[in-house]
């Protein structure tokens, strides 16, 4: 709908603006989860020459988004949103366990669990949701009464549900942040210029939108990865002699 000023009403509603503000905060580079310390195996791909320029990085990122860990994260996040809105704590516990079990290497397990657990800690300290909605109550109880590791997309999904952040927005922002973080890692290792990095992010915008739409129609039965070289790179990175990143 459009109001008399010509501005879409969805962008002027206070609740929508509050949800947008929190989504931007949760997935900002400034949110203290340490995302800048992880490269998802990209550093190893640069080391062995598999990613050496902007074109190679774009191709690698598109594969991760369409067929790799990013797609799996999006499915987990979406199912977490649904389970939280239904108040299904058992399903949320299963998603937490599944998100950790799916990781193909020690470093990828660290990447998701360290970020997820740091995310939970920050939500508990600064952004605990209020209200009596099922998702808000589950977020308070599961985040505060549990010292287990959390996979990052499941932690983000539960917080987004608790703060009434819409599904499509949460998925889009998560994948954009994931992609932007890896582009930042590439700028420090390939190396690439800042403008090249932004060009890659712009080029991948329609890919992210397509993955979001596919994810919204997917189920846990669709989880899986076919980016074997990226998974192997994350294993090889564990013994890489000189490195900047933890994965």
Q: Can you give a write-up of this model?
A:
With 247 residues, the chain is mainly α. The protein contains twelve helices and no strands. The chain has helices at residues 14-26, 42-47, 54-67, 69-85, 89-101, 106-126, 134-144, 152-162, 167-189, 194-203, 205-216, 228-236. The protein is globular and about 50 Å long. Residues 4-9 have low confidence and may be disordered.
Annotated CATH topology: Urease accessory protein UreF
Low-confidence stretches: 4-9
| Subunit organisation of the chains | single chain
State the end-to-end CA separation. 45 Å
| Helix-and-strand structural type | mainly alpha
User: What pattern of helices and strands is seen along the backbone?
Assistant: HHHHHHHHHHHH
Radius of gyration: 18 Å
Notable features of this structure?
247 residues; mainly alpha; Urease accessory protein UreF; globular
Provide a concise account of the structure shown.
The chain has 12 helices and no strands. With 247 residues, it is mostly helical. It is globular and about 50 Å long.
Could you give the topology of this structure?
Elements: H1 14-26, H2 42-47, H3 54-67, H4 69-85, H5 89-101, H6 106-126, H7 134-144, H8 152-162, H9 167-189, H10 194-203, H11 205-216, H12 228-236
Helix pairs in contact: 3-4, 3-10, 4-5, 4-7, 4-8, 4-9, 4-11, 5-8, 6-8, 7-8, 9-10, 9-11
